[in-house]
Amino acid sequence: MLLIDPLVEPPNVHLDLPGSKSITNRALIASALASGTSELSGVLFSEDTHVMIDSLRKMGVAISLNTDSSSASVLGAGGALKGPSETLWVHQSGTTARFCLPLAALCGVEVEIDGDEQIKSRPHRELCEALESLGVQIEYLGAPYTFPLRVNGENLKGGQVTLRGEISSQFVSAVLLAAPCFPEELEIIVEGDLVSSPYVDMTIAVMRSFGADITRISDKRYAVAPTGYSNASYLIEPDASAASYFFAAAAVSGGTITIDGLGSQSIQGDIAFLDVLEEMGAEVVRSATSLSVTGTSSFSGVDVSMATMSDTVPTLAAIAPLASGPTTIRDISFIAKKESDRLGALVSELGKVGIDAEKTETGIIIHPGDPQKATVHTYDDHRIAMAFSILGLMSSGITLDSPQCVAKTFPTFFDVLDQVRAAGDAKLRVLAIDGPAGSGKSTLAKKVAEQLDLSYLDTGAMYRSVAAVALSESAELDDEAKIAAIADRIVIRFDGESVDVDGEDLTETIRGPQVNAAVSQVAANPGVRSVMRRQQRTWARIRGGGVLEGRDIGSVVFPQARLKVYVTATPEERARRRSLESGRTVEDITEEILQRDTKDSTRGDSPLVADQDAVVIDTTGKTIQETADYIEKLFLR
User: Fold this and answer.
1) Which of 5, 48, 114, 311 does the annotation list as catalytic?
2) Given a cut of 70, is residue 605 above it in pLDDT?
3) Measured between alpha carbons, how far is 239 from 365 in angstroms, rounded to an integer?
């Protein structure tokens, strides 16, 4: 459960968003099929893209990842994919499921593909029948035309294939991506309307960047020569679908949000969402390197077809209640077959928050209203969760029942959302105290909080609580996803010195030797840190400020804190203090402290550093009272 903290000030920020999921997966496939090594930058690392990477690796493609630089190096297979020794498990990724069907055929042997229950409810029949018409044998191990199934492309041929376009453009993209590696030229004919056609344009653009020979005979007819792919260096744009949430936030809040790196020449069709916001009254500035939206005093309803940008339908639906008139969204009936029945979900959840919304023959009508407090069911659909988060910025009391589903395409969504709140957070009376282990920051923070009459948050106890629960459940600390899920699930409460977790007093447990040994690894988990940062920010917003201490409070959690202090001391001094507390030898503790310093300063997520704006205080030889008085003066001046 996550209560969305509302805005208190309109935003005025530039945002750097992760790479496009759609482009990332297409570039991964093109580079995997190419000859030679390709270098990809701007890569999105999310559940969906990791599923694609895992599938390609199982088919013999060597992929080296660098999450810190959002890059990947792919040694292409030259079109000769290998039969995997195990099942390709596509989880809930519709893109991976559809794209892997023709890729599996390129292996020339039997390949089994399966996935989670959610993916089995999505349509695949048209793609399966198209592949079968090209000589691919498909054995259905359960219900026809869905997973689990076995693909055998031993008799794969080129020629001509017809695909229906009104259900999903992914069917066309899937065949297009594999076609350069077919044994013969392939001509694809699209029958009926092609929904989300800009995604096919995107597919072709990516393919051509890797040397594919594609002829667009007409809007519904393509010819692909069997020339394969060439290796390339390729920059992936920020995700335009993800950008829609922040553009919407600007439009309804009266603020300004600029997305850097996403320009007017983007190959993503979802930048057309800006045209919709402009029609509703927002000001839009487009350049080759950025896109910007500013909200105005006018925000009216709109009547619009969104067949070509359907992923942004939940975004528009979530802000439509704030318009001055009704909003009609047309030509989107096919989104009922997405990760969830998005039409039904939007009508239901808007109704929960007191908004009148109704289905039409091809879409939805949403009437203006005053949103009420409610818990929104996300249907494990990332786009429902992110869309209603934007409504939550404008209306108090919007809670998401399963916020973790945003990891499917945008794991850092809530961190970026907090950047939108930066103007309001800058007005909080926050004192951030950071420093290495044993620097005395906890004792100091409590003392300063008392002198300033501010609340104190023991952030270390939060990480210790996660570690304690993980140990009690015998969870593997190396399983980052599971530990992060524990952090997201548990409820931590403080009452003076007492720490309560899910109704159980863990005050003593979290200070025990087992937790001491585990907490460093838990605290280095990016997923855990993301959850804790979210909770720490909410804690301070509720109180109008407070004293928070840790290792990234000033540098990451509250970079706009009123005062940032970085306290330190020599390793020997820190060891001496801990020796007095524990009775252990200074030598043993010094070694532990040095190891902890190295681990904290080199971790990938929020490494321990003194923020450039922080006041650095060496507490060696100083009393707590002397340091506390000095910090108090700095805070009040």
Assistant:
1) 311
2) no
3) 27
Please tell me the distance from the alpha carbon of residue 162 to that of residue 556, in angstroms, as a whole number. 52
Exposed, middle or buried by CB within 10 Å (0-12, 13-18, 19+), for 612? exposed
Q: What is the pLDDT of residues 378-408, one digit of tens each?
A: 999 999 999 999 999 999 999 999 898 998 8
Angle at 407 between CA 549 and CA 596, to 5 degrees: 35
Cα R_g (the chain), whole angstroms:
27
- pLDDT of the residue at 576: 74
Q: Which two tokens stand for residue 349?
A: 């959840």
pLDDT at 181: 97
Q: How far is CA 61 from the centre of its chain?
A: 25
For residue 397, the SS3 value is: coil
pLDDT band, very low/low/confident/very high, at 442 (cuts 50, 70, 90)? confident
pTM for the model stands at 0.86
Q: What is the DSSP string of 229-268?
A: EE--EEEPPBPHHHHHHHHHHHHHHT-EEEEET--TT-S-
The class of domain 21-235 in CATH terms is alpha beta
Asked if 125 contacts 131 with a C-beta cutoff of 8 angstroms, the reply is no
Going by C-alpha positions, the residue among 293, 327, 332 that lies closest to residue 309 is 332
For 588-603, write each residue's pLDDT tens digit: 677 676 677 666 666 6
> Strand pairing partners for 260?
290
Indicate the pairing of strand 186-191 with strand 221-224: antiparallel
Query: Which sign does the torsion angle of CA 620, 624, 630, 634 carry?
Result: positive
Each domain of the chain, given as residue ranges in start order, spans: 2-17+237-415, 21-235, 428-460+508-636
Number of H helices, E strands in the chain: 22, 33
Three-state secondary-structure class, residue 120:
helix
Two tokens at 218? 């007409």
Burial class (CB in 10 A: 0-12, 13-18, 19+), 139: exposed
CATH number of 428-460+508-636: 3.40.50.300
More confident residue, 277 or 404: 277
Alpha carbon 105 to chain centroid, angstroms? 31
Q: Answer yes or no: 311 catalytic.
A: yes
What would the two tokens of residue 637 be? 């001046």
pLDDT tens digits along 547-562: 999 888 998 999 999 9
For residues 185 and 225, is the Cβ–Cβ distance under 8 A? yes
* Helix-, strand-, coil-residue percentages of the chain, each rounded to 5: 45, 20, 35
Q: Please tell me whether the peptide bond between 148 and the residue prior to it is cis, using omega within 30 degrees of 0.
A: yes
Q: Which of 408, 418, 417 is nearest to 378 (CA)?
A: 408
Asked whether this chain's domains 2-17+237-415 and 21-235 adopt the same fold, the reply is yes
Read off the pLDDT of residues 124-141 as tens digits, 9 standing for 90 and up: 999 999 999 999 999 999
**Residue 380 DSSP one-character state:** T
pLDDT tens column, 457-511: 999 999 999 999 999 999 999 999 899 999 988 999 988 889 999 999 999 999 9
Query: Is 2-17+237-415 a domain of CATH 3.65.10.10?
Result: yes
